Structure formats: structure tokens, C-alpha cells
């Protein structure tokens, strides 16, 4: 078949009313062209619905790669240091428990007041007042201020403040003031009778929270 007769099939084909039920009767050049067009459509459809979607998913997953690497490094570090973290947690729990045991509860408050009074007396002071005030509720604990008034010398008051740190319950001292009663019969200033007013605070854990 010559090239001229081959391409004459385009002229002979009835483009307005093609017979799709008898495609075999179409001219060879038309059949080849139709086959090529169908092949192109198949390739394009495969690319559009399969390859293109896969590429987009690949780009999205590739964008997540750095974040996943960071997560892997973080988790691998945690796993490698898990035993150390457990030991630190145990130490923290032990420390917290020890501190918690130093916080008096409501039933221990009278004993704490006795401890403060005994500490003052053993330091050589005369106790004028040890009076708890109203509780102040904070976010994680309850604070109880205690007003303390004692009389004695500078040395005795220093001993009292130092000895308060040895009380087995947590007590902090705040806002103290010292005034002189009378030095008319005192041999020197250090031995003069003094009055000290000081605010102590103790704390109770809010176990209900």
C-alpha cells in the first residue's frame, strides 16, 4: 500500500456518521489514528488519577519527614534515658513526701504551738503571746499565720530564731520588730530587756485538690 492510498482513507471516511458497530470497516489510517488517540487518553488518565495523586501524596509525606525525624530523636532520647528519668522521679517523689510530712495538719496545730513555745522558753525568752490567725487558702496549700510576742535580750532572740529552723515542721518567720522596754537598770545595751513581735507562717497541703 502506497503512502498516497494510505492517507486517502482520511478522505473516504464518513466523519459525520461513523459506524462504531463496524470499526473494522474503517480505513486503516483512521483505525490507527483512533487507536493512538485511545492510547493517549489511557496514558493521560493513568497519569492523572494514579501517578499525579501519588506524587502529591509523596510531596506531602516528604514535608512531614523532618517533623517525624525530630519526634524520633526526642523519643529515642527519652527511651535511652528512661531509667535515669525513673530514678529522678523516684527522688522527686521521696523529696516531696519528706516535705509533705513536715506540713502540719489541723490536728497537729496545737503541738506545733507547743513546740514554738518550748523553743522560746529554752532560748531564755519570756513568751507573751503565740496566737494563730485565720487560714489563708492559696492555690495548692493553706497558709496559717501565727503572731508571736516574746521578751528577752538580743542573744536570746537570736537563739530563738536559729532554733526555729530545727523544728520538725515547716515554719517561716516574717515581719519582725524589736523594741526596747527599759534600760534604766541594765548594765549594757545587749542585756537590756527587749520585746520582739514576729509573724510566723506554717503551711498545710490541700490534699482534697
UniProtKB/TrEMBL annotation:
<dbReference type="Pfam" id="PF04350">
    <property type="entry name" value="PilO"/>
</dbReference>
<protein>
    <submittedName>
        <fullName>Type 4a pilus biogenesis protein PilO</fullName>
    </submittedName>
</protein>
<keyword id="KW-0812">Transmembrane</keyword>
<dbReference type="InterPro" id="IPR007445">
    <property type="entry name" value="PilO"/>
</dbReference>
<keyword id="KW-1133">Transmembrane helix</keyword>
<dbReference type="InterPro" id="IPR014717">
    <property type="entry name" value="Transl_elong_EF1B/ribsomal_bS6"/>
</dbReference>
<feature type="transmembrane region" description="Helical">
    <location>
        <begin position="28"/>
        <end position="50"/>
    </location>
</feature>
<keyword id="KW-0472">Membrane</keyword>
